Amino acid sequence: VQLVESGGGLVQPGGSLRLSCAASGFTFSMYGMSWFRQPPGKERELVATVSSADAGGFSRYADSVKGRFTISRDNAKNTVYLQMNRLKTEETAVYYCTNGRAWGQGTQVTVSS
Question: With pLDDT > 70 as the criterion, what percentage of the chain qualifies?
């Protein structure tokens, strides 16, 4: 199993980023996929989840990101995305994707002016 995140970087407050997580080594469409983040010195926290294709592909979000972040998946490309809009400085963190069993290495998102 391999999960590889990409798309992180430096963005100004109020800006946008789109993270990608490319998956391999398992039947991607059968797994719910989630994005977590870990701010410096803090615990890892759930950001968003999208259910498996069989479960309808429904998404859920942490209250703090509702209306600004969108999780989506492309089962043909074995990829899950996280579109992040109106980013805040406190959302600086390493962002990870997971299928519930394995984790990627993370991608750094820094929100700063």
Answer: 100
